[in-house]
């Protein structure tokens, strides 16, 4: 890898060979290595140096004492190259959140580090070097009593756990089953407490940990300088990985061993002199590698740094890989293009006329040149895309055209959407979502969020309709299509857009409309009755969607509305389906207050996840104290504490016993694969609703036989139910 590997040091060995007879020189180094066994002595010898470095750092206002071993651009390219590679982790890192007995945690951690090194090296080997040849390396742990390497599993079985002090990735060599130091590609040190030196904390790693890293690096370098192995890409650079059960970083030590004195009478003095004067030490930031479930986040910067170090270490032993990082990274743009086409396809899929694919193909092969419009018109319309109350927007769906007049501008927390009425039927109201015009350059996050809100939601709602899900508690697709812009549309007959800035802007219209729970809470109109009904209606929506394998994934007060105009019996509807999970690869939205524990930990939903989010919604809506959450860790910790103290159940118990019982039930299911028994809970909630309603409301359907259909002519909302609750 360019820039990463130093020139071979074999030449320099040759050039200085004359200074001492080879045998004598080798003997001296061997003896030195045998006696160089105490990392604490080395650290003590380096204390002044560490202190002077941090003084220099302060006086020169450098950000870090040591340089970073890798450039961010290198890591980024490496990240692209790794996109198609899967790393197979078999052992989970034990979570510090759920400690059992400390011995078993430590043992599991050692096994997990070995597994991590193995999975990293194997994934890299197969992707860059060879699919067919077996990987010539393996991971083993060092037992400090005899400086031998063992598989951690065997060492632990023999009661050697307490003496394990490092893990190494090393060349397989059947003649040396307990490992040789010159066979080591890289060393990993499992040192709890790294999490307190994360990347943004400015805190440098303590001398003890750095000293130990330098000690192990130096031992490997000395052993290599005595080795008979050939190092095609040079051997004077060693990577030491620092890991704890969540975080990790890389220490890189590089230098010419021939510049070391090897003074047998002052072993630690000559070692520290070499480090001070002849070595280049670089230290990476400490970043997260494992999530709370103990799975490595392979794409995160913490794991990337460690993988990149491992990659460089393999290069030293195995030479230039068959496929370069550039080769593999080149596929990134192909994947990116495929992803974009997929998105485009998603968008076109949602067109009910079903010729999405056809049009996509046409679009891709027809780079037709369209007439350039007058620039002055262009600027004017671009500015006027902001919709105001009263403005009318025309929508083209298949061959229909329909106008909608904006009644109100609404906010889902991030983005605007609209309450609008069809021009030809002003008695009706719908929600209208407007996507970003393809021509407009929005900040990426706005673009992405708009895509979720409009195109993705259109796809989800159409999918529900195709699968025959119908429930009045779900929002329904009324129509979807593209905007009809003012002036003549010059788009080519084969599809695509003309150069009017609005051309191709996607629009989605859904029903029903209502006030969001967020608004009800802020105006104090979400009381006991509402909480129980909300729980029933949302659970019913969750159940209907789950029956066809769809999960909502973004339940929060902005995504639940209360429908109370034109209906006999007000009810709640779950809206905002853009982040719904249709298949395994879909990711739910991340929300520190409302996401389920599993979603925060895994980025996925389990079967109880939506119900768990619903419980948080009810808890916060019923006056549960809202914690100040600013990180996923903090959010998980809050959940852990709140559930274990039964804080959520208690709060909901103040509202109603059935909600308390429901929270208990959800708590028992969280994170398990067991399905929710929707029927039982819908029945119980319904019973509580009837108790609440009893005597307060006369069901008009009893008298006039009206069904629960939405009507816009009569508002039959019962006046008996107090909505204004402080
Ligand atoms: Zn156009």
From TrEMBL:
Residues 1-22, 696-726 are annotated as: Disordered. Coiled coil: none annotated. Residues 696-709 have a biased composition (Basic and acidic residues). It comes from the Eukaryota. InterPro entries: Kinase-like_dom_sf (IPR011009). This is Uncharacterized protein. It comes from Kalanchoe fedtschenkoi.
């Amino acid at each position: 890898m360019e820039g990463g590997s130093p020139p071979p040091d074999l030449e320099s060995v040759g050039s200085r060979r004359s200074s001492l007879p080879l045998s004598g020189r080798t003997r001296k180094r061997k003896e030195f290595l045998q006696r160089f066994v105490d990392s604490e002595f080395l650290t003590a010898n380096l204390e002044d140096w560490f202190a002077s470095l941090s003084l220099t750092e302060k006086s020169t206002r450098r950000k870090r004492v040591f340089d970073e071993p890798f450039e961010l651009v290198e890591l980024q390219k490496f990240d692209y190259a790794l996109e198609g590679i899967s790393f197979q982790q078999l052992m989970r890192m034990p979570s510090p959140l759920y400690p059992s007995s400390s011995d078993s945690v430590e043992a599991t951690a050692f096994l997990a580090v070995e597994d991590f090194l193995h999975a990293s090296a194997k994934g890299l080997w197969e992707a860059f070097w060879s699919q067919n040849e077996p990987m010539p390396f393996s991971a083993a742990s060092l037992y400090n009593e005899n400086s031998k390497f063992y598989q951690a599993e065997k060492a632990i079985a023999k009661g050697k756990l307490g003496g394990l002090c490092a893990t190494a990735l090393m060349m397989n060599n059947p003649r040396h089953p307990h490992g040789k130091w010159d066979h080591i590609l890289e060393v990993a040190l499992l040192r709890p407490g790294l999490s307190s030196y994360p990347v943004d904390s400015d805190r440098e790693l303590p001398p003890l940990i750095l000293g130990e890293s330098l000690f192990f690096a130096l031992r490997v370098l000395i052993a290599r300088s005595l080795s008979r192995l050939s190092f095609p890409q040079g051997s004077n650079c060693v990577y030491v990985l620092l890991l704890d059960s969540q975080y990790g970083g890389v220490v890189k030590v590089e230098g010419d061993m021939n510049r070391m004195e090897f003074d047998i009478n002052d072993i630690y003095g000559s070692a520290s002199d070499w480090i001070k004067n002849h070595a280049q030490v670089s230290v990476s930031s400490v970043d997260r590698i494992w999530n709370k479930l103990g799975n490595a986040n392979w794409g995160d910067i913490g794991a990337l740094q460690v993988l990149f170090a491992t990659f460089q270490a393999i290069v030293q032993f195995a030479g230039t890989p068959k496929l370069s990082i550039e080769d593999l990274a080149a596929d990134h743009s192909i994947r990116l293009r495929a992803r974009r086409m997929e998105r485009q396809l998603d968008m076109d899929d949602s067109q009910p006329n079903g010729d999405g694919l056809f049009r996509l193909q046409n679009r891709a092969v027809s780079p037709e040149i369209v007439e350039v419009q007058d620039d002055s018109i262009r600027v004017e319309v671009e500015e006027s895309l902001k919709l105001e109350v009263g403005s009318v927007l025309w929508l083209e769906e298949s061959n229909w055209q329909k106008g909608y007049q904006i009644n109100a501008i609404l906010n889902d927390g991030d983005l605007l959407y609209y309450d609008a009425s069809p021009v030809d039927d002003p008695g009706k109201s719908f929600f209208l979502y407007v996507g970003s015009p393809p021509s407009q350059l929005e900040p990426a996050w706005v673009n992405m969020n708009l895509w979720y809100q409009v195109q993705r939601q259109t796809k989800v709602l159409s999918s529900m309709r195709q699968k025959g899900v119908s429930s009045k508690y779900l929002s329904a697709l009324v129509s979807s299509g593209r905007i009809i812009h003012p002036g003549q549309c010059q788009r080519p007959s084969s599809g695509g857009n003309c150069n009017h800035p609005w051309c191709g802007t996607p629009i989605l219209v859904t029903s029903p409309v209502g006030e969001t729970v967020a608004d009800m809470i802020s105006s104090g109109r979400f009381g006991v009755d509402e909480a129980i009904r909300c729980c029933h209606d949302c659970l019913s929506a969750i159940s209907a969607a789950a029956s066809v394998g769809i999960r909502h994934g973004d339940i929060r007060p902005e995504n639940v509305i209360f429908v109370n105009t034109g209906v006999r019996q007000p009810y709640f509807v779950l809206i905002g389906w853009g982040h719904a999970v249709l298949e395994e690869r879909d990711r739910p939205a991340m929300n520190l207050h409302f996401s389920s524990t599993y979603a925060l930990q895994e980025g996925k939903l389990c079967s109880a996840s939506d119900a768990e989010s619903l419980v948080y919604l009810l808890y916060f809506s019923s006056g549960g104290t809202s914690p100040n959450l600013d990180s996923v860790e903090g959010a998980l910790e809050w959940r852990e504490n709140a559930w274990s103290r039964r804080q959520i159940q208690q709060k909901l118990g103040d509202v109603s016993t059935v909600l308390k019982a429901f929270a208990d039930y959800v708590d028992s299911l969280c994170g398990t694969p067991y399905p929710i028994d929707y029927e039982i809970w819908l029945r119980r909630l319904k019973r509580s609703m009837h108790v609440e309603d009893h005597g307060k409301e006369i069901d008009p359907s009893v008298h006039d036989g009206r069904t629960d259909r939405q009507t816009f002519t009569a508002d039959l909302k019962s006046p008996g139910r107090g909505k204004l609750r402080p």
